[in-house]
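Researcher: Please generate the 3D structure of the following complex. Treat every line as part of one assembly.
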Amino acid sequence: MEHLYTKDESSSADQVYQRLRRLLIEGFYPPGSRLVEERLASDLGVSRTPVRQALVRAAAEGLVQIFPNRGAVARSFTIDDLLEMYDLRALLEGHAAYLAASRITPAQLSRMEEAATELEKSLTYTFERRQDEVHFLVEHNAVFHQTIAEAAGNQRLITMLNQIVAVPLQFRSFYWYRREERQISNFFHRSILNALRLGDGDRARAMMREHIFYGRDVLLQSQRAESAPAALDEE
Amino acid sequence: MEHLYTKDESSSADQVYQRLRRLLIEGFYPPGSRLVEERLASDLGVSRTPVRQALVRAAAEGLVQIFPNRGAVARSFTIDDLLEMYDLRALLEGHAAYLAASRITPAQLSRMEEAATELEKSLTYTFERRQDEVHFLVEHNAVFHQTIAEAAGNQRLITMLNQIVAVPLQFRSFYWYRREERQISNFFHRSILNALRLGDGDRARAMMREHIFYGRDVLLQSQRAESAPAALDEE
DNA sequence: GGCTGATATATTGTATACAATATCCTGAAA
DNA sequence: TTTCAGGATATTGTATACAATATATCAGCC
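Model: Done. Output below.
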């Protein structure tokens, strides 16, 4: 058996894609900005050819929009887009949690355990920069969620979740802002872990869904509070 | 508001992709066969450049696998792959049916009605070639299912379903083989329609899930009966 | 001044050339 | 006969050139 992934992963040109993806998610190319191929090419130190492929891939993933003969644009998200995505995330991750309950291995459980613990301890950490903190949180949170998807044992489900979760970090960072919300989030993690340990798929799914809907509501609230819908520019 | 789709649809090079996709789904390039760029290029009457992009896109969609420096291969499906896909289809289409129940328009309902009726009437039709019949059935069936996805009103859900349903026709054609199975399938269509008309989301979802699982079981049975797992070549 | 059309510029889309890599084939040695 | 090395061939990966298209600029006209 060879590589699991369908994409040309770990190849050289694949790195262009990975970097572009990162730049988009981290908000270096903010939503709505034009992605001129030549510019990206010089930014990334390659020719337009691999850039083009990366853009096509990113478009398939929904990170950019390509308009024929008019170029690519970093995708911007409306409130409705976010709602759609959270709806699907709840569905897919809930299902993943359900499946994982009957298949998860001890190694995977302890990996999740560790991630959850790190997230809890980090409430007392102090970070140099706010950005470092967000990175830390996003990273460990990703481990938690990805391990569940992995434990579900459905490769396509993983692919789909990766697509959905590929939302610019700008949006997700709100989530981690307040202490109270982080504590609730940690509580959800513990509940999910418990359900998985007990092999209770229904409860794992229910908790996961609540966890995600909670995140959605926090995000929506912060969006409303923030600079109003201006940040989410509709075309 | 501009185009709904993220891809560079309806553009010129996009057609290369559409044609490649069709060739793959219709089994012209059978699962497991190598997709040499030059060959595709001459087959499609273009240079390697647009072919390459089409391949990248098809890989993102899961129709082909790209191995770094070793080219693309028409994806082959194992039994487990099919099970994974049907599992996700049940989840996503079930959800779509649930959402559609509260949003579907009369126009959409009558479109589905029409498709269902055509499928029923076709039991008495006689077709020139078996292939024509399969095409007819697949086409009307697609209308039925796509309308539900559309009525669900979640663009991402549509995209995901398109990805999942992009299975080589070779597999799907089994489904339509026997009269009894088609009748049961038609019955499911009517049940789903009823539930949608009544706005009963739970029932619509349940029926849709059964419908899809039934299709899965028919497929699996035919696979087992057919040339054994040889047709589903593992690498 | 504002509109219209023509030209210039910027950018995308495609083809081709060449480099990098993998695969195949041949022949010699064990 | 099998195995391995080395070169020949096939194919992918990238850069670049040019064509096609869209956008911007500006002169002329009302």
